[in-house]
Structure formats: C-alpha cells, structure tokens
Amino acid sequence: MFEVLLQPFQYAFMVRGMLAAVLVGMVCAVVGTFVVLRGMAFFGDALAHTILPGLAVGYLVGGGSREALFWWALGTAVVSAVSIGTVSRKLRLKEDTAIGIIFAGMFALGVALISSVRSYSVDLAHFLFGDILAVRESDLVRSAVFGGLVLVLIYAFYKEFTLLSFDPILAATLRLPAHLLDLLLVVLIAITIVVSLQTVGVALMVAMLITPAATASLITRRLPLMMFWAAVMAALSGIVGLYLSYYLNIASGAAIVLTCTVGFMLVSVGRSLRERVFRVSTA
User: Fold this and answer.
1) How many Å separate Cα 271 from the centre of its chain?
2) Contact 191, 34 (CB under 8 A)
3) Residue 249: left if φ>0, alpha if ψ -120 to 50, beta else—which one?
4) CA nearest 66: which of 17, 146, 138?
5) For 42-142, where are the E strands, in sequence order?
C-alpha cells in the first residue's frame, strides 16, 4: 500500500505536479466560491477561452517560451475581463450579451492565428488540455506568487465581495465602489485562470472554478466554511487525479476534473439520502 502511494514521488516532475495541483486547486476553489455565488459560470468559461489569441501571439513573440506564453495570456485575460465590463456598462448591454461578443471575437481571433501557423498548434494543445507533469520550478514559483496575490486580495476585500454577492442594494446604500470592486473580482478570476492553465488547460478550466465550490455549497451555506471545503475538495481532487493519471496512463487534467465531478456526485447523493432520512424520521 505504502509502495503504491510513494512510488510516484520517486520522480521530481510528479512532486512538482502534486504541489502545483494543490496550489492551483486551492486558489481556484476560493475564487470559484464567488463565481458560484454570483452566477458567473458562463463568464469564467468565456474568459478561459478568450486567452487563446494571447497564447498564440506569445508563442510567436517568445518562440515557445513559457514565460512569454504566461505574460501574453495574462495580459489578454485581463484586457478581455475589463472589456466585458466596459462594453456592458458603456453600451448598456446585458452582461451575458457582452460576454458573448467578446468571447466569440477573441476565440475566433485565436483560432485564426493558430490556423495560419500550423507548426505550433501541437505545442499550444498543452495549454488547451493541460500538462501539469511538465511544470518546472519557475512555473511553480510564478503560480505561487500570483496565486498568493489573488488570495491576499480576496482576504483584503472579503467583506466587500461578500456584501456585493449577497446584498448589492445595501452595498449601493453604503456607497461602496461597486463597479471597481466588480472589476477587481473579474481581474482576479482572469489571473486565476492563467495561473491554472498548465494544470487543467483552457478546455477544462471552468470545472476547477465551479465544481469544488458547487460541491462545498451542498455541504454548508456559511461562506468561510464553503471556501474551506471547496479548497479541501480541489486539493484532494488534484492529488487523487494525479495518482489516477500515473497508474491509469490518462491525461492529468482530465483525471483531476473527473475526480472533482465524482466528488460532486457523491456529495449530492449523500445529501439527498440524508434529506430523505430526515423527512422519514420527522414524518
């Protein structure tokens, strides 16, 4: 048993992968709690796909350098997040309409860039579907720095984000800078998505934002506990998913997301059974 658990740690890339999975999972879970509370799942999915042109341009400019890919993806994500808010507010469009416009345009631009230079489409596939086992020490440090920054800002503005999520009318009465706080939150989501790229990729990114937080919402309605259980769920899913990837020889990003999904299903079934038993006992 211990040999099965310890065998993957003989390889440095597995150790780095485990650390990255736990770190990214916890950041995604905390940010994802606000995404779930505010019904921003579509926004998260769209934002994850809008970074595609940034990846393509970063590859062309940096010649495949991971640093260039990261910075161009980060810049594209932040610009896309700000653009969605600006288009929605300035043109008085519904937010989902603005999301659809920016998402479609940016994704189409990314596809056009990739299709015009076919030689690098295979390399970018790692960012579309994740390649956590290729995480280097520099990638891990960069993820820790930006992930830590996201968590610090969430902690610093926790009360404001919570008030805007549960009672926006009271927030307006208290004259909180709602627009600036919303802008900060979407920028934090953008940073989280870019930090998580190499772990699960663009295609599966939304699952890491949504599934652990949704699972935690079935366990508790208290926001601090929801964040805690979401982080625990995400970290465990990362670890278990990597073990499954190692022993079953399947894609690591997909294994992590599937583990999250199974966890959600088990918790939802457990909650349903508990509610049924409670109704029977009180009948």
Assistant:
1) 25
2) no
3) left
4) 138
5) none
Amino acid 58 reads: G
Which tokens go with 119?
């030689």
Per-residue pLDDT of the chain (283 residues; tens, 9 = 90+): 677 777 878 888 888 888 988 998 999 999 999 999 888 877 887 888 888 888 778 877 877 677 788 888 888 888 888 888 777 777 777 777 878 888 888 888 887 877 776 555 555 666 666 777 778 888 888 889 999 999 999 999 999 999 888 888 888 788 888 888 888 998 999 899 888 877 777 767 788 889 999 999 999 989 999 999 999 999 999 899 988 988 888 888 888 889 999 999 999 998 888 888 777 777 6
Query: What 3-state DSSP class applies to 222?
Result: coil
**Distance of CA 142 to CAs 28, 67, 71, 109, 227, Å?**
15, 9, 11, 27, 23
Burial 119-158 (b: 16+ CB within 10 A, else e): ebeeebebbbbbbbbebeeebbebbbebbeebbebbeeee
How is 84-107 classified by DSSP, letter by letter?
HHHHHHHTT--HHHHHHHHHHHHH
Buried b (16+ CB within 10 A) or exposed e, 242-254: bbbbbeeeebbbb
Contact in structure between 59 and 120 (CB atoms under 8 Å): yes
